[in-house]
């Protein structure tokens, strides 16, 4: 496996990242309600805990999507005429779902160039355990931000492109942000390239609530680890025993929300910011949205951002959907006036 590190972190860059982390924490803790961006969940410990969440029986999205991909792995290649394809995965994780799609193309005797893109080099190492070697498979790992990596791949290949954005990652953006993200992705792709994106569908609230409050406590630990990270990197004195995890469904937004609740009145000092923050008893600290979708939402989002739906793939219970889209460029797909631009 080849690997390209698009950003070699210098001491200056590390300091800059710490400064941005501190600014984002300051902004969030001065807001009402208090919040911290979910993008800071994924240090090494956070990534490890998230893998445990996805493997737990209460958390259905990973298990259901795996079944969907396993069912379509030999049908998907038939939608592509070329004998060679570049598959790019944004946020590939450990690669166990990627392997299903790759194997489907290999079984159809197609040459596959696989480009997993992830900011975490550790994730790339974990991937080696799940992606099997094959003479017709070339793997080129890219460590970097999504769009930085995508532009890198585009410069090095002219093959038909299939981008994977699996899991329910699109649900971590709100209704405005997901339009901006998808339109930015559209701009990086060529006409007739394809995108396979995963959507968690709306369903019984008890099923959703159980998934985001798993009985093993992995989600709780995952959220509390964010406070631990602030302690370690910004010199805070959060007492993790004085916060409890709470996940709930907001029907007005159509989203699961994750919170930490302060269990008593307390002050938290953050040395990097040189100031304290007051938490009232049971005051919520908002951490994450996970938006859920209807089929009509997905089709509207596709049309609005310049894609055409090729086919929807779902499970018998309609818990989850992987939707295959084709990039459509031309006069009919100018940027809509009501679209948020990233």
List descriptors.
single chain; 342 residues; alpha/beta; Rossmann fold; 2 domains; four-stranded mixed β-sheet; globular
What does this structure look like?
The chain has 342 residues and is an alpha/beta fold. It has two domains: 20-57 and 205-291, no CATH class; 63-203 and 294-333, Rossmann fold (3-Layer(aba) Sandwich). It contains ten helices and 14 strands. Strand 6, helix 7 and strand 7 form a beta-alpha-beta unit. The chain is globular, with a radius of gyration of 21 Å.
Strand content: 25-35%
Order of helices and strands: EHEHHEHEHEHEHEHHEEEEEHEE
Strand order of the largest sheet: 1-5-4-3-6-7-14-13
Number of strands: 14
The CATH fourth-level homologous superfamily of the largest domain: Vaccinia Virus protein VP39
Contiguous low-pLDDT stretches (5 residues minimum) are none
CATH class of the largest domain: Alpha Beta
Please report the distance between the alpha carbons of the first and last residues: 33 Å
How many structurally independent domains?
A: 2
Question: Tally the helices: what do you get?
Answer: 10
Based on the coordinates given, report the CATH architecture of the largest domain: 3-Layer(aba) Sandwich
Shape: globular
Question: Taking all residues together, what is the mean pLDDT?
Answer: 90
Fraction of residues in helix: 25-40%
- The CATH topology of the largest domain turns out to be Rossmann fold
Report Rg. 21 Å
Q: How would you classify the helix and strand content by structural class? A: alpha/beta
Largest sheet: 8 strands, mixed
């Amino acid at each position: 496996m080849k690997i390209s590190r698009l950003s070699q972190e210098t001491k200056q860059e590390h300091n800059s990242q710490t400064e941005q982390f501190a600014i984002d924490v300051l902004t969030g803790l001065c807001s009402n309600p208090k919040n911290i961006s979910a993008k800071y969940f994924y240090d090494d410990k956070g990534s490890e805990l998230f893998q445990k969440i996805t493997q737990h029986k209460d958390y259905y999205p990973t298990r259901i999507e795996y079944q969907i991909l396993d069912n379509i792995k030999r049908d998907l290649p038939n939608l592509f005429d070329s004998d060679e394809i570049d598959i790019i995965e944004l946020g590939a994780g450990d690669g166990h779902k990627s392997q299903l799609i790759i194997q489907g193309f290999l079984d159809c005797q197609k040459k596959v160039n696989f480009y997993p893109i992830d900011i975490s080099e550790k994730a790339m190492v974990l991937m080696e355990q799940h992606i099997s070697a094959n003479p017709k498979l070339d793997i080129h790992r890219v460590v970097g931000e999504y769009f930085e990596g995508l532009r890198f791949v585009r410069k090095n290949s002219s093959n038909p492109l299939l981008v994977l954005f699996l899991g329910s990652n699109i649900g971590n953006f709100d209704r405005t942000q997901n339009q901006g993200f998808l339109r930015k992705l559209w701009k990086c792709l060529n006409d007739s390239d394809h995108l396979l994106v995963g959507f968690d569908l709306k369903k019984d609230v008890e099923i959703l609530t159980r998934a985001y409050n798993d009985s093993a406590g992995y989600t709780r630990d995952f959220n509390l680890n964010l406070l631990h990270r602030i302690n370690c990197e910004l010199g805070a004195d959060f007492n993790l025993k004085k916060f409890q995890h709470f996940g709930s469904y907001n029907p007005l937004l159509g989203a699961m929300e994750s919170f930490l609740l302060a269990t008593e009145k307390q002050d938290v000092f953050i040395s990097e910011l040189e100031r304290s923050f007051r938490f009232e008893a049971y005051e919520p600290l908002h951490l994450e949205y996970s938006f859920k979708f209807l089929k009509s939402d997905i089709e509207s989002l596709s049309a609005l951002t310049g894609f055409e739906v090729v086919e929807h793939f779902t499970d018998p219970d309609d818990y989850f959907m992987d939707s295959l889209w084709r990039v459509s460029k031309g006069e009919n797909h100018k940027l809509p006036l009501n679209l948020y631009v990233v």
